[in-house]
Amino acid sequence: MNPSPIGIFDSGYGGLTVLREIVQLLPQYDYLYLGDNARSPYGPRDFDTIYHYTLECVQYLFGQGCPLVILACNTASAKALRNIQQLALPKIAPDRRVLGVIRPTAEVIGQFTKTKKVGVLGTVGTVRSESYLIEIDKFFPAVEVAQQACPMWVPLVENGELAGPGTEFFVKKYLDELLANSPDMDTLLLACTHYPLLEPVIRQFLPKEINIVSQGKIVADSLADYLRRHPEMAGRLSRHGHRHFHTTGATEDFDGHASLFFGAAVRSKHVEVAHF
Ligand code: DGL
Question: With a 6 A CB cut-off, is 17 part of the ligand 1 pocket?
Fold first, then answer.
C-alpha cells in the first residue's frame, strides 16, 4: 500500500478545531478531513444511526487510502468507536486503525483540577453515553464529574452564530445548570469539538477561577505519542504537508465556515459517503 494521509472525521466543522492543533504539532503528515455536514448534528441521534453514519464515513476514508482515522468528534467517539474497533474493523480492515478523542482527554483531565471537580459539557449523545464518567473514573477515581448536555450549541456553531443575544442566552442557560449542580468545580471540559468556537461567550458567563479545557491540543499530543509508539503505522503515512477537505454538504457553506474553525482558508470537495 502506498503511503497515505491521516483521516480526520467529524459530523461537521468541529473536528477542524482538532485538526488545527494536530497540523501545528505534526505538520509533516498529509491529512484528509471529512465533515458529514449533510447529516450533522449527530448529537441528538440514536445509537444505531450514529454508528451507521460514522462507519460509512470511516469506510469512505479507508476507501481514500487512509490507514489511520481519528474520530475528532466526541459523539461519534462515545457512540460508535468501540463497535467500530471491536466489530467492524476485524472484518473490513484489520490492518487499519480508528482512534477517538474521549480516552486521550480522560487520561489527562485530572491534571487540571485542584478541587477534584470537573464539569463536562457535551452533546446529548455524549452525555447520555456516560463515556466521560466511565473513562475519567479509570484514570482519576477521586475526580467528581458533573455533566451537562448543551443541545443548542452545535446548531448555533454550525450556523455561524458565535455571538449575540441568542447565543448568549443558550450559553448562559447550560452553564447556569452545570454550576448549580457542581458549584465547586474548577475545571470545565469542552467535550465537543464544536464548542471551542463558543469559548469567548462561555468565558463571559463563567466565574474567572474556572479553567476551560478544550481538546485540540490534548488530542494532538496523544496522536504524536501514538505515532512514536507505533512506527509501523507512522511508516504507512504520507508526508508532504498536504491538507484536503471533503464534505457531504455544500462546498460553498463548508469553505465559508471552515476557515473560522481551522484558522486558514479551506477549499473543499463535495463527496457522497452513503452508498457503502
Ligand atoms: N463535534 C461533535 C462532538 O464533538 C458534535 C457533534 C454533533 O452533534 O454533530 O461531539
Answer: no
